[in-house]
Amino acid sequence: MTQPAPEPVLTVRDLHKSFTLHTIDGRTVTSLHGVDLEIGRGEHVALAGPSGAGKSSFLRCVHRSYLPDSGSIVLHTDAGPVELTELSDRAMARLRGRELGYVSQFLSAPPRTAPLEVVAASARRRGMDRAEAREAAADALRRLALDEALWDVDCSVLSGGERQRVNIAAGTVHPPRLLLLDEPVSALDPANRERALELIASLSASGVAVLAVFHDLDAMHRLATRVVRFADGHIAETGSATDVLGDAAA
Fold it and tell me: What pLDDT does residue 250 have?
């Protein structure tokens, strides 16, 4: 019996994005050529493909770090569908706080801000009160095994792996409707990578839709309900991890 399609969380239609290379000769390079993609509640969609294929450009257009040249990006919220390409920067910032998480390789934290406060601030933006947010932040940092002695130090003194764990904790605390991941475990040692992947895997059960870029084939096999392979700014193939990537052990 065919399972019903999950409730849509993100719908992207005919997305185009190009860049002008001002530092070279002013030529225009097209990164995305009319991409269509839909992601449902509880799905984990991994973007695969070589460097320059358009994966990160697509992710950043959804986050609105990049404004696309044309096309539609709709986030389906409890209040109804929201066209992200039409929002003002201020409205987009508010929506990111509540509905849309983004975890990159690098932590961007305000100066003189400690890990506990970074994660708690993310939880408050998602609707928790101050006390609840602080408790949720502590739980998230414990789950990722960040030493409690580091919770109140300036994030700038943390190692790369420690910063990445703070970033994951902030992205997943009181999880948003849609979580974007851009190589989130690249700096982690094996034990902490395992903790992070277990945390990310658990999000599907709570209905979080995940859109991720990994270069780690094992992570894609473990996490992805669907893999979308990009090539030259197009979606070249969509299917299970095994269908698109082959056997992880190969």
Answer: 42
Q: Are 206 and 175 in contact (CB under 8 A)?
A: yes
Q: Quick one: CA torsion of 91, 97, 103, 107, rounded to 10 degrees?
A: 100
Cβ neighbours, 10 Å, residue 157: 9
| pLDDT of 24 | 63
Residue 65 lies in a domain: yes
Q: What's the total number of domains in the chain?
A: 1
Contacts of 246 (CB under 8 A, 6+ apart): none
- Residue 197: CB atoms within 10 Å: 19
| Domain enclosing residue 117, as ranges | 8-239
Please state the pTM of the whole predicted model. 0.92
Is residue 234 assigned to a domain?
yes
Is the residue at 250 inside a domain?
no
Q: Exposure of 9 by Cβ count < 10 A (0-12 exposed, 13-18 middle, 19+ buried)?
A: buried
**What SS3 state is found at 135?**
helix
Question: Strands across the sheet with 70-77, in order?
Answer: 28-40, 8-20, 70-77, 80-83
Query: Is residue 244 domain-resident?
Result: no
For tokens 């993100």, what's the residue? 10
User: Which residue positions in the chain have pLDDT lower than 50?
Assistant: 249-250
Q: Which helix (H) or strand (E) segment is 200 a member of?
A: helix 190-202
Residue with tokens 């997305």: 15
